[in-house]
Amino acid sequence: MTTHSLATRAALLVALVMPVSVFAAEDDVKEKQEVHSDQSESLTAIRDQSQAFVTAFNQGDAAAVAALWTPHGQFVDDSGRKFTGQKEIEAAYAELFKKNPETKIEVVVDSIQLLSDEAALEEGRTLVSEVADGEPVYGAYAAIQVKLDGKWRMASVRDRRVGLPSVHQKIADLQWLIGKWSAEEYGMRIESECRWVANKSFVERTYTTTGPKGAKVSGVQLIGWNPIKGQVQSWNFSADGGHATGLWTPIENGFTATMRGVTGGGLPTESVNTLTKLDENAYVWQSTSRSIGGQPLPDTDEVVIKRQASQP
Predict the structure, then answer these.
(1) Is the pTM of this model over 0.70?
(2) What would the pLDDT profile of 88-121 be if each residue is shown by its tens digit?
(3) Chosen domain end from 161, 179, 197
(4) How far apart are CA 12 and CA 19, in angstroms?
(5) pLDDT digits over 223-249, tens only?
(6) Hey, which of 36, 87, 141, 251 has its CA 20 to 30 A from 98?
(7) How far apart are alpha carbons 242 and 263 in whole angstroms?
(8) Residue-number span of the structural domain to which 81 is assigned
């Protein structure tokens, strides 16, 4: 056999083999993408089902709540009572809603583990408010979800009551603020330090603003939990005797704080301050809707505040 014929056969062999391997790789990638897509769809559907439970519960619709179980599903409440089948589960929730007509629930899904294409373990936490005794009920749950006729339904749910979260747990999301921060804007330098105080029940923020000509303004802010309002609150005290309070509302990656106070000279102040976390080492601060003594002030620019590097 000539060298030319050997080369030709080798080239043909490569040409025949390469498409097979390439197509096989493409098929493998496509198959993995399809599996990932199916899993994502399942996780989304289970989360949607949990939200449907919240909606039905908060509307006091016992029938809609029970319909989220399988026909022979089981529910064990936080006192250990067992209810089997949609009729028993509906009756249990109907009794709850009759005794507590204003009751509401909040659900936080902590994890969803797909056990197979048609079964999953969901775990999370609940907060039930507006109950007859006036005290909110904190709980945890584990639910086995199964897929029937293309829809995810609860086959088994077990609730348990948990203790009241500590004050620190309610403001633990502020942990990333702890440390020293600084920013410079138009010749003005802002420096602040945040630290835990009072057994981590509050964050104390001390700050100093130095103007272009060296004039300084300093103050202290305490950030904690207001149990009556049920939200984060801050208390500001400035060196000139001014003070303000702010109610903080969570937003995506941060908070807005509605501030009301008074200057050291006795003029009322109002503003809405927004704090948006960029990453662990930077956040954006801006003050809008500002006024002093009833006179509106322009919004501030957005200021990027960065964490100071730790000293060696």
Answers:
(1) no
(2) 999 999 999 999 999 999 998 989 999 999 999 9
(3) 161
(4) 12
(5) 999 988 889 999 999 999 999 999 999
(6) 141
(7) 4
(8) 21-161
